Amino acid sequence: MENLTVLGTGVLGSQIIFQAAYSGKNVVAYDISQEILDKLPARWEQLKPSYLNDLKDATPEKLDAAVSRIRASADLADAVKDADLVIEAVPERLDIKQSTWEKVSAVAPEKTIFATNSSTLLPSAIAPFTDRPEKFLAMHFANQVWIFNTCEVMGHPGTDPKVFDAAAEFAEQIGMVPIHIHKEQPGYVLNSLLVPFLEAAAKLWMREIASIEDVDKTWRISTGSPMGPFQIYDIVGMMTPYMLNKDSDDPEMKAFADKIKSDFIDKGYLGTSTGRGFYTYG
After folding, report:
1. What's the pTM?
2. Over 90: is that where the pLDDT of 120 sits?
3. CA distance 3 to 46
4. Per the database record, which ranges form the 3-hydroxyacyl-CoA dehydrogenase C-terminal domain (predicted)?
5. CATH number, domain with residue 160
6. pLDDT recorded at residue 224
7. Domains in the chain, number
């Protein structure tokens, strides 16, 4: 599969686009307006220094070549017309994902495999809204894909095993380590481990048990981990924990979401992508 289309150019969508192009794939970046797409060149310039710093084989020439393999389109039919694989990275709401795949199904070629990058939703909840459930599955990427390079591949009971294998092979071709998930699991592997950890940190902060810095320091020193939970929140970005918790049945986590919105999102502090979240970044 040489031709990829990514639906959604937010933090993770743009990373998938750039990583696939860096690995030699032809990539179409789709979003709902040209105004959004016009911001992509600046996003590529933000990513380039990270690749040069974190990857031994990165060079300015290779990064420029990656950009040359990316085409942007706000026309859905145009964006998917040659796609071997479509990866959807739209907001983490089931209704948005379902309606997106209904629209894609109406215009995508028969050959195209469909994948959602959802971090919490199950493929079986979305597959019926496509015209090819046997070619539908999840490919979940971790944030900062060029260094935290796992891709959790999870089908649903109706996914064709050959499609599953093709998706896992594609992930490997773009520098990912494919994680084969054998049964549907909310949160996959990564978030089944990560979400309870981050929630515990949020509650320590909301209860004023310890400062953000001391919570992170405790985790780093005691476990040898390179990052604490609030540093991870900054990498994930503020929108994800807000969307996951704004309607939570847990009053503490709902209050955490409200505080994220008022203290960070409303001020434009979205995490490392904007240079400021729980911490300020140079």
Report:
1. 0.86
2. no
3. 24
4. 187-281
5. 3.40.50.720
6. 97
7. 2
Last residue of a domain, one of 131, 152, 181: 181
Average per-residue pLDDT in the chain? 96
Does the residue 282 lie in any domain? no
pLDDT at 246: 94
Higher pLDDT, 236 or 51: 51
For residue 280, being part of any structural domain is answered with no
